[in-house]
Amino acid sequence: MKIIDGTIASPKGFYADGVHCGLKKKKKDIGWIYSEKKAQAAAVYTTNQVKGAPLLVTKEALGVAHQLQAVLVNSAVANTCTGETGIEDAYQMQRLAADKLGLENHQVAVASTGVIGKHLPMEKVTMGIEALSMKSGNAQNFHEAILTTDLVTKEICLSAMIGGKKVTMSGVAKGSGMIHPNMATMLSFITTDANIPYQLLEKLLKKKVDETFNQITVDGDTSTNDMVVVLANGCAENKEIVEDTPEYETFSQMLRMVTEDLAKKIARDGEGATKLIEVSVNHAATESDAKKIAKKIVGSSLVKSAMFGEDPNWGRIICAIGYSEGTFDPSLLDIFIGTQQVLQDGLPCDFHQTNMQKILAQDTVSIQVDLKVGTSQGVAWGCDLTYKYVEINACYHT
Amino acid sequence: MKIIDGTIASPKGFYADGVHCGLKKKKKDIGWIYSEKKAQAAAVYTTNQVKGAPLLVTKEALGVAHQLQAVLVNSAVANTCTGETGIEDAYQMQRLAADKLGLENHQVAVASTGVIGKHLPMEKVTMGIEALSMKSGNAQNFHEAILTTDLVTKEICLSAMIGGKKVTMSGVAKGSGMIHPNMATMLSFITTDANIPYQLLEKLLKKKVDETFNQITVDGDTSTNDMVVVLANGCAENKEIVEDTPEYETFSQMLRMVTEDLAKKIARDGEGATKLIEVSVNHAATESDAKKIAKKIVGSSLVKSAMFGEDPNWGRIICAIGYSEGTFDPSLLDIFIGTQQVLQDGLPCDFHQTNMQKILAQDTVSIQVDLKVGTSQGVAWGCDLTYKYVEINACYHT
């Protein structure tokens, strides 16, 4: 398995494009991914009880045959809290894309990210769809078209041999605050030319999203429009992947690598962030405990502020563990920041100040917690809390 | 029932004092409350699984006879994550105070707030206790001695007639961040000369703390040292209060007013805060739902940032409701900011921009949510998220 240069359109049979249609002032704001063959598809959605209209339409589409051939995405307007008109608009987006691509409506997923409570200007969207190219587009433009306040595009491309065939998998994501100022959302789209049935795709996607995307936090706010969609069109012509085989294992590792990489890129590009924080919890009673504790630590405003201030404030880490509701024994706790141990068996230990300062000055800081109560582990990712975060979120006006 | 000028020593038979013993550079850092008669007592403690040593000692003391005659409190050092030595130090504090006041050890509660992982300098503490006055102290000094990064002292004093006798109740609190940079904690102490058995005191305290102190959030971090203690010494000589009588009702209202007032003062004095945010949720399916939803809204970093920026960003409010896990129907939601309605039946409505700006510029902003699914209600209090919060928590160094 190796990382290669590529775009969301690198797997065989996929195409993508993005254009500016006027939802944003200047930047690209609408794009699509198209597969020349029907693709097995799976998706996971936000757990927020308020769901954007596109999620309802996409969920319905996937329910028909678990197959997709296109995903149409706009940024700047989330199409959430928009009532019946919003639902109609989402269907209209789907219909327009399907017509232009010669597909059934249910073969097109739609996704939106942006301001809540604003209707989509459908004239602009219609013009945007007209301007999108089916096969001669520029896939990098798609990566840009889905962004809101993100500072960089986020993508990864992998290849590996599966059943003697070269399989490629690409992923792209956006998400800066988990929600930005009314700019909802983390979105991610994954394409692969692997031949794999939707049932396995669905099962693996749920697991990987749980281990990666669901373990990042920028500000603790879960958006109304989060969505991850994976399409597998089989163009690599490998023999259909079967569960619990080496081929399945390779595919599973690829999906994990793609989702983890994108999740970390989202955390690093969190609103106002200056560094990525990675928290590992080891020897927990259960995996659920380990993930929960890791996420509480990385989500603590106090830990996040301390990391911004480059302060090895383990008291805040132990405090977050304490209110995590996970199982642990305070007198067994070991905590490391980078290579430096700060707590042993629940008591502070001396560390090398200069080395610690070097560790905290880096753009990735790792925190490792050893609970010593079991055999499970979990990881979570986040970013520091900075003046810039407050500025972005206070100075934005609706 | 009326609010009167007073201190924690205003109820009959109570005395208090505070001095500087060297835990802080200059400010007062140790103090006590003393009752000349045995007082019925009750306490609630942090839910954090990591608990400071003083909590263990106080819990044990209260378990003996549910009576206290003194509470000894220091600031600057939390005596948490300090192992066996920490427990010994807490017992030593208790013993020293008991000896000086001529009490049994178990009649003295101890509380600490400050840096985690640091041992109490017991020589200084000993000198502090020696310097404290039993009956001729200055109670206002106690209010100051328990502070960490608080900008103001927080107190309230009430009087009411109960069973033909004038009963006084006072409360004092500290707490700036729910945890400050390793400065743990919300602490509150309530004194009253009412005659009431500890069982009722305990029951009422739990309920009121749940409705008030547990409904405030500054940064979502629950400290290791939180503690609320109430002492009722009976010096008002009212007939012992019995459940479900008018006297019980009056006492209950007094306790509610004291805890709500202190809770709001803590929220308003939250680290870096410029305003108090009060969120009411009405017509919820259950009280638990209403409280949960209110707290999620007031705890959202995005809502908090918006309030700092004086932006009526209802999208963030609806989003927080969505991930609260409370029962609601998005299409029924009404939301008001101050007197201005921003959402009706789940859809945005026009509001008066100038009036809205006036509302958001005030130092208290109320947000009201009507779920229209039931008959229960709940309130939560918090503060805005500001540059100053980040500064306080990033620039502090351990």
UniProtKB/TrEMBL annotation, chains A, B:
GO (cellular component) term, any one: cytoplasm
Enzymatic reactions: N(2)-acetyl-L-ornithine + L-glutamate = N-acetyl-L-glutamate + L-ornithine; L-glutamate + acetyl-CoA = N-acetyl-L-glutamate + CoA + H(+)
Keyword set includes Transferase: yes
This enzyme's EC code(s): 2.3.1.35, 2.3.1.1
GO biological process: L-arginine biosynthetic process; ornithine biosynthetic process
Binding-site residues for substrate, renumbered to this chain: 148, 174, 185, 271, 393, 398
Active site (catalytic residues): 185 (nucleophile)
The protein's enzyme class: transferase
Site residues (Involved in the stabilization of negative charge on the oxyanion by the formation of the oxyanion hole), renumbered to this chain: 113-114
Keywords: Acyltransferase, Amino-acid biosynthesis, Arginine biosynthesis, Autocatalytic cleavage, Cytoplasm, Multifunctional enzyme, Transferase
Marked site: Cleavage: 184-185
Compartments in which it is found: Cytoplasm
GO molecular function: L-glutamate N-acetyltransferase activity; L-glutamate N-acetyltransferase activity, acting on acetyl-L-ornithine as donor
UniProt pathway annotation: Amino-acid biosynthesis; L-arginine biosynthesis; N(2)-acetyl-L-ornithine from L-glutamate: step 1/4; Amino-acid biosynthesis; L-arginine biosynthesis; L-ornithine and N-acetyl-L-glutamate from L-glutamate and N(2)-acetyl-L-ornithine (cyclic): step 1/1
Free-text function comment from the UniProt entry: Catalyzes two activities which are involved in the cyclic version of arginine biosynthesis: the synthesis of N-acetylglutamate from glutamate and acetyl-CoA as the acetyl donor, and of ornithine by transacetylation between N(2)-acetylornithine and glutamate.
NCBIfam families, alphabetized: ArgJ, PRK05388.1
Family membership: Belongs to the ArgJ family.
Subunit structure: Heterotetramer of two alpha and two beta chains.
The name this protein goes by in its record: Arginine biosynthesis bifunctional protein ArgJ
Name of encoding gene: argJ
